[in-house]
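We modelled the chain as a single entity of 289 amino acids. Its sequence is:
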Amino acid sequence: MTRLTVHELTPAFGADVEGLDPSTKLSEDDAALLRRTFDERGLLRFRDLDLSPEYQQYLASLVIGREGSAPDGAPYDTSDVFFVSNKEDDGGAPFGRLLYHCDMMWSDNPFQVLTLYGLEVTPPAVPTVFTSATHAWKALPVGLKARLEGLHALHMTGQARRAGDEEGELLQPQRENVRSVTRPIPFAHPRTGEPILYVSQMMTRKIVELPGQDSEDLLGEVFAHLYDPAVTWQQNWREGDFVMWDNFAVQHARGEVKFDGPPRTLRKVIAPRVIAGSVEKPSFSKAGS
């Protein structure tokens, strides 16, 4: 018997989930409901939770069937838990603006689930904005879809500058090693098989089959569709909010966060876990500095 209830966030994607008790393991029925809703809706939001890092890891792993130990059994290894924060020492992405992206889109093996928990949030905190690349492919105009079939996109580390970018500091993750990968457009979701409109403002550098301006022009058309405000959803953070999303199917972005702005500390957990040392942790500097 399920305790959880699910409500649609937007017609395109996302669901609000109510009734979670973060002190106990989910029943088989509730676990199945979360997995099904996660695959169908791409993003789940919970509110007013007192959530431990272990339970956050448990839920992130559970939705892709890799939950392993229950939170009341052997403890999860939370050594790779970190903070997206403008206040915590060594906080990730501590300032600046982030364009739409999937984390590690440039990797051969991006992780599948990304989660954020509102640990310390003082209004008016900068929201996170989401869009569904799975829904975007389904809703793509027929002519534009035909033009993209058979094409491939190059994704790279860093953050691209694109014509027409809004003003504000664009955060630039710094890595010693530049990484890249080329994937087809559309890209088949590795778990569900659903086609994804797999390009992003931040990490897609070009469509490899097209010359420079032709590539950028076509990407501009795709981005106008993918990031249409009518199909995006904004998470206005408050303490106790927990959002988890499919890191292939759903992209996220944010406006400019300032060091001296309101506290904005979100605890980040991913699934499956990345092997320690296999991914270089970026440092951050402002664009042009």
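As a brief sanity check on the tokenised model: The first strand starts at residue 5 and ends at 8. The radius of gyration is 19 Å.
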